[in-house]
Amino acid sequence: MRNPVVSVCVPTYNGGVFLPQTLQSIAAQTFDDYEVIIVDDNSTDDSVALARQYASSDSRVKLFEPPQRAGSSARNANRCLAHARGEWIKLIFQDDVMAPHCLSSLLDSTRDGHRFALCWHDYHFEPGVDDNTRTFYETLAPLGTVLPGTYAAPEIFCDAVLTHWFKNFLGPPSSSFIHRECFARYGAFSSDMVTFSDLECWIRMGSNEGLAIATAYLVTYRVHDTSISARLRTSSEAPYRHNLERVLFCLDLAFAPEYARMRAYLQARTPALDPKRILTREAMGALWIAIDAKHRNGDPSLLERWDAFEGAHPQVRAILHEFDKDRKISWRGRRFSWRQ
Fold first, then answer.
1. Per-residue pLDDT reduced to its tens digit, 225-252
2. pLDDT confidence of residue 323
3. Arithmetic mean of pLDDT, 86-114
4. Is the domain of 208 the same as that of 272?
5. What's the rounded Cα separation, in Å, for the pair 88 and 72?
6. 146 and 247 both lie in a single domain
7. Which residues contact 95 (CB under 8 A, 6 or more apart)?
8. CATH code for position 10
9. At 298, is the secondary structure helix, strand, or coil?
10. pLDDT in tens, 244-294
11. Residues 222, 243 within the same domain
């Protein structure tokens, strides 16, 4: 059987309230050579029933129900990728919607051989969204402002990432359109990241491929209080998890082969930037937060999390040890003191 041009991937988890609108937006596409891959992560609402109903009306739709939970949207998205047969991967999350010409416009944006594309997106704020959340999204720099035009070469892309360090000006997963070869070459979404797995993936892809941009609002990102991103923002664990994931990203930036091109860009700048120094700075920052929580607030939990993280990533420990020797700083007892 011939493979479709596009695999529309829909990772779901307790998204029944908005899922019908998402599925309807897929069915309304003007480009129709696609399959729909729905992977449910053990939902306890009516998501599976809704997906089954949708699949019964269209032979292009396939529903998968793995018995074990993936536990994060990134891991569940990767499960979708494992089942996808299309040349192109179009992610659309369970509460977002696509404009009818979304697939056709994104395909047009890749006509010159580009393999990684994003479209402009707008927001729909559900009732009850608080002012802080609304402000967070409305003050993010939009893609069209940071990278005007229809294509950003890898060096331009890297410069924008550096200017907006750890700020997601690129967009949510639902705005992406990626050739399957990019996932094969550079890897899927990081299973170790929760707070910005999409941004890390976009940086990995764009620093190698550059970025094609569909200059139209083709995706609407729905903001509501029950979303996964909302739970992450309000979780008490979220702030320090974000710090640890920043360190993990910088670890990849310093050593992973997928980031070789971005390392070359950083080192060719004037002044040059050393990825290992960036890693050291982020690691010291995360460790200092944990030390401060223990000695200022009597809370050892962050330091325990840091110790587990450092144990799982010995390269981070080695970087800090190298800094210790160079600066003659003792970390004994998790306090800073100048050696005599």
1. 765 555 555 556 778 999 999 999 999 9
2. 75
3. 97
4. no
5. 23
6. no
7. 15, 17, 18, 19, 22, 222, 224, 227
8. 3.90.550.10
9. coil
10. 999 999 999 999 999 999 999 999 998 999 999 999 999 999 999 999 999
11. no
Instruction: Confirm if 275 and 254 have CB atoms less than 8 A apart.
Output: yes
Query: Which token pair is 329?
Result: 């700083």
In-domain check, residue 1: no
Which residues, other chains included, contact 40 with Cβ-Cβ below 8 Å and sequence gap of 6+?
Answer: 12, 13, 47, 48, 51, 63, 64, 65
**Angle, CA 273 vertex, CA 267 and CA 277 arms, to 5°:** 120
- Say yes or no: 14 and 160 in one domain: yes
pLDDT at 161 over 70: yes
In this structure, are residues 180 and 238 in contact, taking their beta carbons and an 8 Å threshold?
Answer: no
Residue type, 192: D
Q: What is the DSSP letter of 20?
A: H
User: Does one domain contain both 247 and 116?
Assistant: no
Average pLDDT, stretch 101-109? 98
- Residue 205's CB: how many other CB atoms inside 10 A? 26
Give residue 95's domain range: 6-234
- pTM (two decimals): 0.91
Please check whether residues 86 and 227 belong to one and the same domain.
yes
- Single residue among 215, 234, 253 that ends a domain in this structure: 234
Residue type for position 69: R
Pair 214, 296 in one domain: no
**161 in the same domain as 147:** yes
Alpha helices in the chain (DSSP H): 19-27, 47-56, 73-83, 102-109, 131-138, 143-146, 154-163, 180-186, 197-209, 228-234, 238-255, 260-268, 275-297, 301-312, 314-327
